[in-house]
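Annual report, structural modelling task.

Input specification for the adenosine monophosphate complex:
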Amino acid sequence: MLLYYMPFGKLGLTQPVLDGVKAAGYTDPTPIQARAIPLVLSGRDVIGSAQTGTGKTAAFALPILSKLGSHKDGGPRALILEPTRELAAQVETSFRDYSRFTDLKTTVVFGGVGYGRQNDELKAGTDIVVATPGRLLDHMEQGTVRMDKVEFLVLDEADRMLDMGFLPDVRRILDQCPRKRHSALFSATVPPQIETLIQWAMHDPETIEIGARRTPAETVKHVIYPVSDTQKTDLLLELLNRVKYDSVIVFCRTKHGADRAAVTLKRANHAVAVLHSNRTQKEREQALEGFRDGRYEVLVATDIAARGLDIADVSHVINYDVPQHPEDYIHRIGRTGRAEAKGDAFTIMIAEDAPHVYSIERFINQKIPRVKLENFDYRYTALFEEAKPGAAAGFPGKVRAVRVRGGYHFAPGGRRR
Ligand code: AMP
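The model returned the following structure:
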């Protein structure tokens, strides 16, 4: 659509915001920006289902900043709700970046840190609050912030807020916001509870769907490495040894698993940082900062901790554990290939993972090639030999996993025995 090629200058943003965009180094709007910016500027409520890495933050931040214009006393006029502290911090940074040529003030509010600075900033008066729901409610109850001046509301990563049990808090916050306001909601999926929230909280929203909602970032090359469960760690270490990466995120299913993987990688002399929700806020910030500035080359993370994080230039994602929710696969591999950079995503798969892999493949509507690491000392090479000729990089149709001495190997055809 012609609209996609509209330059930033023609979208109706104010000059100081355009200057901010230029300073951020953006030349052209991404498709979601080209669609969402004029809609938000015209006062429409918007539901965005673009995947992560599409530039959705600027899609809502730029028009909101333009509409806010300049600083006003009397409480926040824009409220952005985020599911995690890291996301909140990241979105706050974007708002500050884009508004650097205005006098608008942005405050971030999240738990796990002291109240002092947040109290001071809120009392001093702020235009934009970027917050996680729990801590924001604390502030509202203590009277440090009021929602009665809110004109713009953004519910970012709404499906993740639902997963994390935040919807009741979100409703309590929205109850305190004026009914006459503009709302935007971003969500990779729209389960029934989010549908209800949309009906309750939004007014005649326009839905923007960019690309196929379930398509992983096109710039990412993704493959699966099947292996027996006893060799998972060896394969991970070998992948890290062989692959020329600049920075890699290793995803684990549990916090405990992430800690264990980190210890193993440290022992193998990798510079490793860990990100999961049992770490203190300070530890998480240090991990992210060290990873961003290159001190750590490997970041071991769980899904919740890494959701939506804008970590630039990740060359590789390794799924040490197959994600149990297909959407998490998209989110994980979306860490690479952000804003058009290229990346690789490797998934280590053991026999028990087969059902999850199939549901991921159904979800993204494509088969992920199975590949073998050359010269790796596989315990169960039958896995590949039994695949159809020419299918060393893929199982034909159904795969059955056969239990062999405490592990499994895969063979084409029927069920696990
Ligand atoms: P997001 O989807 O908002 O997390 O953005 C993903 C990445 O794309 C971030 O690093 C942004 O700084 C970057 N980005 C957003 N909009 C643009 C644009 N129009 N041109 C280039 N990069 C962008």
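The CA atoms of residues 106 and 128 lie 5 Å apart.
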